[in-house]
Each structure stands twice: as C-alpha cells, then as structure tokens.
Design brief:
- It contains 7 helices and 10 strands.
- By secondary structure, the protein is α/β, with parallel strands linked by helices.
- It folds into 2 domains: about 170 residues, Rossmann fold (3-Layer(aba) Sandwich); about 70 residues, no CATH class.
- The strands form 2 sheets. A 6-stranded mixed sheet has the order 6-7-8-3-9-10, with helices on both faces.
- The protein is globular, with a radius of gyration of 18 Å.
Length: about 250
C-alpha cells in the first residue's frame, strides 16, 4: 500500500478547462518526490489536492489507504514565501502550529529549539523576522513545518526567491532533517537541477498531466560533488527533454 495514492485525479476550477487531468501518482513512505513543470502546468493545484486543500472533481486520493482528510497535524506546509508573523519571535513562529491548538509543552518547546539548532539558528530564537535574511526566514519556515512531526511535508517552490548558494545550503538542510525524521516529502519546483538533487523520484507535469516519471538513482547522502557528476547531468538532460516534449 502506498503512503499517498492518487488515482485518476482531475480538478477543474469553475468556468475553466481541467487544470489537473487523470493523474495517477504514488508516493511511498519516507520517499522524497519532486514535481517539475512549466508555470501554469498544474503543479501547485496538484500539491493542494495532495494536501486536502482542494477536493478532486474526479478520482480518488488516499493517505495510508484511507480517504484523504482535510489538512491537519499529519501534514506540514512550506510555501513560496516564508509567511512569518512579524510580531512573533523566531521561536514563537516555529511553535505557531502547536500554539494554535494548545499552549506548547516544555517538550514541544525543546523540540522547536532542537530544530532551530539543526538549522543553525539557535542564537536567533529571540529575534524577530525583520532581523533575518531571506535564507534564515526560509529555515524558520521549514522548522515550523516540522515541529509537529508531520508524516508528510509539502513544499511549493520554497527556495525560488533565494540566491544560488543559499538555495543549495537549504536543500542540504532539508535533506538532512527529512532523513533524520524519515519524513515523506512532496516538493514542487520548476528547477530541474533542484529536483534531481533532492528527489528519489521526479515527475514531469505538462498541461495537467504527468508526462514522465523518473527514478533518481544517485547515492545518498548527497553532497556538492554530485551536482557536477556525469550521472547528475544525464538525469537533468533526460528531464529537460521530457519537459520539452521530446523523448526522455
């Protein structure tokens, strides 16, 4: 049984043609899946369907074999912008998903502090978002998404606005944290190299359909040297060909 299973999933916004069309896609527990495609191809809509933020017009989505429930603590989200609360400290921003349900326990505060330590932000836990760089704000957003120990993490192009070096550092941080907690990940990006570096599998979406699905057979843990290897470049070229509509 797959962890997340989409069967013939379609979605249509009112007054528009189908944005997602008959998608079959499965994510196994503990795997890191990336979805790539051009702007407007339906990537973010499919992510929202996987999160339970939208309901399919047709088809079925199950989590652990059960119909997907509305968003809850079993899912963590990281969006394109960090969306931190400016009047909250870094630590309070990380604790926010828990604070909305109950006063955080000492154990939960300790967990948040541990996540900040793993992100290299321990010294900034009493600072406010305005004091942080873009990369630091993104790290806080990832820690916030993981503080509830979700079974699945969903990310929508979270590093798109960052410079190349910061982006690579955050990719490494994300991989390390998800490996430590065996978190299942659904990551949307338009960056082919980012997808190949992060993922166990990459799917290519075009005009609402999954056009290609590629297993990334690169060793883990991954480091900087992999980005320049022939195998890495070959996988990137294969995905680019699939995105261009040619033979992958």
């Amino acid at each position: 049984m797959s962890f997340l299973d989409m069967q013939q999933v379609s979605f249509t916004y009112p007054g528009r043609t189908a944005v997602v069309q008959r998608v079959d896609w499965r994510i196994e527990q503990g795997q890191f899946h990336c979805l790539v495609g051009r702007s407007g191809c339906g990537k973010t809509t499919l992510l929202k369907l996987a999160a339970g933020l939208l309901q399919p017009s047709e088809g079925r989505i199950t989590l652990h074999g059960e119909p997907l429930a509305p968003p809850g603590p079993q899912l963590g989200f990281v969006f394109q912008a960090p969306t931190l609360l400016e009047w909250h400290t870094v630590l309070d921003n990380v604790l926010l998903p828990l604070s909305l349900r109950h006063p955080p326990t000492p154990q939960e505060v300790a967990r948040a502090q541990q996540l900040l330590a793993l992100m290299g932000l321990s010294a900034l836990e009493r600072h406010y978002p305005r004091h942080l760089s873009g990369g630091q704000q993104s790290r806080v957003a990832i820690a916030r998404a993981l503080v509830g120990e979700p079974a699945m993490l969903l990310l929508d192009e979270p590093f798109a606005a960052l410079d190349a070096i910061t982006r690579e550092e955050l990719q490494d941080d994300l991989l390390a944290l998800c490996r430590l907690r065996q978190t299942t990940v659904f990551f949307v990006t338009h960056d082919i190299a980012e997808a190949v570096y992060l993922a166990d599998r990459v799917a290519v979406m075009d005009r609402g359909r999954i056009r290609h699905d590629l297993e990334v057979e690169l060793p883990r843990p991954r480091g900087r040297q992999i980005r320049y290897s022939p195998a890495f470049n070959a996988l990137c070229a294969q995905l680019r060909a699939a995105m261009d509509g040619g033979a992958p």
